Amino acid sequence: MMSFPNSLLDGYRNFMSGRYADARDRYRQLAENGQNPTTLVIACCDSRAAPELIFDAGPGELFVIRNVANMVPPYEPDGHFHSTSAALEFAVQALKVKNIVVMGHGRCGGIRAALDPDAEPLSSGDFIGRWMSLVRPAAEQIGSNDVMTPAERQTALERVSIRNSINNLRSFPDIKALEEEGKLELHGAWFDISTGELWVMDSETLDFIRPEI
Amino acid sequence: MMSFPNSLLDGYRNFMSGRYADARDRYRQLAENGQNPTTLVIACCDSRAAPELIFDAGPGELFVIRNVANMVPPYEPDGHFHSTSAALEFAVQALKVKNIVVMGHGRCGGIRAALDPDAEPLSSGDFIGRWMSLVRPAAEQIGSNDVMTPAERQTALERVSIRNSINNLRSFPDIKALEEEGKLELHGAWFDISTGELWVMDSETLDFIRPEI
Amino acid sequence: MMSFPNSLLDGYRNFMSGRYADARDRYRQLAENGQNPTTLVIACCDSRAAPELIFDAGPGELFVIRNVANMVPPYEPDGHFHSTSAALEFAVQALKVKNIVVMGHGRCGGIRAALDPDAEPLSSGDFIGRWMSLVRPAAEQIGSNDVMTPAERQTALERVSIRNSINNLRSFPDIKALEEEGKLELHGAWFDISTGELWVMDSETLDFIRPEI
Amino acid sequence: MMSFPNSLLDGYRNFMSGRYADARDRYRQLAENGQNPTTLVIACCDSRAAPELIFDAGPGELFVIRNVANMVPPYEPDGHFHSTSAALEFAVQALKVKNIVVMGHGRCGGIRAALDPDAEPLSSGDFIGRWMSLVRPAAEQIGSNDVMTPAERQTALERVSIRNSINNLRSFPDIKALEEEGKLELHGAWFDISTGELWVMDSETLDFIRPEI
After folding, report:
1. CB C152 to CB A159 under 8 A?
2. Residues of B whose CB is below 8 A from A97
């Protein structure tokens, strides 16, 4: 008995008759030669914010980490399992990517939870509560303000969290060194699910601005 | 000064004039009502194996975790940051997904490293070494066999690792309970980058077979 | 001797040969019958944010108050001179406008000053310091946060100040009553000088959003 | 729900496709570098007398205060909110404008009210009554004369009020000092809504005359 979701099999049929058929040689070459992406994107698991769709990226272009709220924890070489740090290490050391993009988005459920003082653990493990504690200091500062609307506070924290993750990227000695040598660039981006607007972080002011399109 | 990669901005322009323009109402509705995906896919960061491409999925359809070698660690409620466990908790408890698909692929760099007895740490943190130790027992069994070719050993471990992750999913009490209640299904899939073939795990035999297309 | 600025006289010549020549009858009729605008706009003195330009408004369309940071003080019937309150009274009671729009803008010098803890009085009278104290409580909340960038804090306060002014409008008994009777609507708007974007306040969430254009 | 007046959104569309599209670079530069207007215009809120239209002024050219009857109160550093004095202070001290133009116009409702002995307060706050008392002494002199027609009395007071405001400008110590140093010029102007005629005050005779066009 095999019960694989039909919706996924239907999509797979479209892939085979469409994109794969069009890019058959590209897939074969990528299989032979291995991947060589120049960009790592750290994105959210959110079903509305897939980087391959937003950046119209084909096979081999983007190495992608996806976790809740597209966060990077600080450097902690403590022998535990570190999914995100392991993928970072692989992208930077093995693939030698030239760009890392921390990509956030509007209406992020993780960020909303971080701003909710009454948020209950989702399970006895409270993995989300612990994970989102990465932005707790910023969440407390922004959440304590009662003049901005909830939506304004959420957008603010979504962007602050991107800067926070970029700072955490620099806590990895190798990333910091490569950035200083000009071999690696760290970028921030924020996607508005509703309007489709992409905002990118200005590397000097750290503000999020809309690029010329 | 703003130095966002032009290749990404070019792709974004295509997205806005293409997919977004076509699905504007869908994006707005998803922003208004929030996401409601029924499927979580745990996939690899590999740039050649994006689930949205392989399953031709649109916005709102797939909640996606991506880490190296699409692995799930065992349940460890120890107060550390657990990127993958946090995302699992969010997908199962908050989004109440009905399906979890652990999706592996051929030519996986993480699995290759796990099979390489001479693999050196990629950095002093050795995050990848620690992360891939999740499949070390299986890697040692398969690696010690010298009758299978390297490619055969790698494909074998790629598939064993998917079953290993599905077993680890069941170490999460809530996931185990929901599966037993018939409210959540756990699936395995393996994608051949070269041929584009999708193989799915038979839920009874645990073999990987090619679905009828 | 008459030393009227030549730049203004040059502009006036353009007006006479252009807009006035085109709208001569409209001007005569407006002189005969008096003005009958249905909208009051409370805008900033800023030279970059003239409402007649942004709303492409002709003669007779907008009754306009302009002060620093487009603010409305609370109702204070204390017998002092109240420029803004007097104009409000005239617009609501004599002209019976149907809409009041509090229109802010980006890069507002007054708001920037309100956020600057080291701001010195501009003169011994310190009129600006006193005037901007209308938003001091909000400025202190937003200014105390050190995770948003200066530009983010300024945009946030520009929008909070618009809501603050709308609340102050409701401290005028007649405005409150007319609004409750459905005879007067209060609106907020924010103009981005750089991009030309107009954001309007959602009357329910109080968020600023971009209208369909 | 968002109920922003459609007439304004229509005008905004014209602005974006017209003036903004034509002056995009100018707006961006003004946003980057800040405003640097050399002229402050103190004009009436009247919908028929927008200085940007009459002087065909583009973005960044005029810093504009608009209150009822374009008046300047005397210097009163009493700690109350002074909308007009605050804007004056900002224009003179922060922007260092070179010209201040007090610009009146025909058919001014505020001046008419000041000349009406039977004028009732418009509301219990009587803000207009208090505000227009700035010209009461002149209004009583001119109103007591029964040989001029009502229209003649009104035009006369409109012009007297402009001179009165210019005298009040000189009650601000810094403005008086800058004018004496030749760093700031004070001007009067009067606009005839019906004919479009602009009359400017001769700085020696204080008469209003029509400039050579």
Report:
1. yes
2. none
Residue C199's nearest CA partner among C187, C186, C190, C207 is C190
The 10s digit of each residue's pLDDT in C36-60 is 999 999 999 999 999 999 999 999 9
Which residues are A103's β-sheet partners?
Answer: A189
Residues B61 and B14 in one domain: no
B189 and B102 co-located in one domain: yes
* Residue D149 pLDDT greater than 90, yes or no: no
A130 touches chain C (CB under 8 A): no
Same domain, A70 and A165: yes
In chain B, DSSP assigns E strands to 39-44, 62-67, 99-105, 185-191, 198-201, 208-209
A102 and A119 part of one domain:
yes
* Interchain contact A136–C (C-beta under 8 A): no
Give chain A positions within 8 Å (CB) of C159: 148, 152
Mean pLDDT, to the nearest integer, of D192-199? 93
**Residue that the structure tokens 């703003």 belong to:** B2
- Per residue, the 3-state secondary structure of chain D, as one string, reads CCCCCHHHHHHHHHHHHHHHHHCHHHHHHHHHHCCCCCEEEEEECCCCCCHHHHCCCCCCCEEEEEECCCCCCCCCCCCCCCHHHHHHHHHHHHCCCCEEEEEEECCCHHHHHHHCCCCCCCCCCCHHHHHHHHHHHHHHHHHCCCCCCHHHHHHHHHHHHHHHHHHHHCCCHHHHHHHHCCCCEEEEEEECCCCCCEEEECCCCCCEECCCC
Query: Which residue segment(s) compose the domain that C148 sits in?
Result: 35-209
D touches A (3+ CB pairs < 8 Å)? no
Q: Using CB atoms, which residue from C144, C146, C160 is nearest to A148?
A: C160
- Do A2 and B196 lie within an 8 Å CB cutoff? no
Q: Are residues A10 and A77 in the same domain?
A: no
What tokens were used for D102?
A: 């007090």
Q: What is the C-alpha separation between C133 and D139, in angstroms, rounded?
A: 35
Question: Model ipTM?
Answer: 0.93
Does A19 sit within 8 Å of B53, measured CB to CB? yes
Q: Do D61 and C47 touch (CB under 8 A)?
A: yes
**Do C147 and C90 share a structural domain?**
yes
* Domain harbouring A55, CATH code: 3.40.1050.10
Looking at the structure of chain B, the number of domains it has is 2
Separation CA A195–CA B38 (nearest Å) = 24
User: Any chain B CB within 8 A of the CB of A89?
Assistant: yes
Beta bridge partners of A40: A63, A100
**What would the pLDDT profile of C60-105 be if each residue is shown by its tens digit?**
999 999 999 999 999 988 878 889 999 999 999 999 999 999 999 9
Same domain, C168 and C83: yes
The shortest CB-CB distance from B90 to any of A52, A68, A193 is to A68
Under the phi-then-psi rule, with left for phi > 0, alpha for psi from -120 to 50, and beta for the rest, what region is C5? beta
Mind telling me how many Å the CA of A210 is from chain C's nearest CA?
A: 9
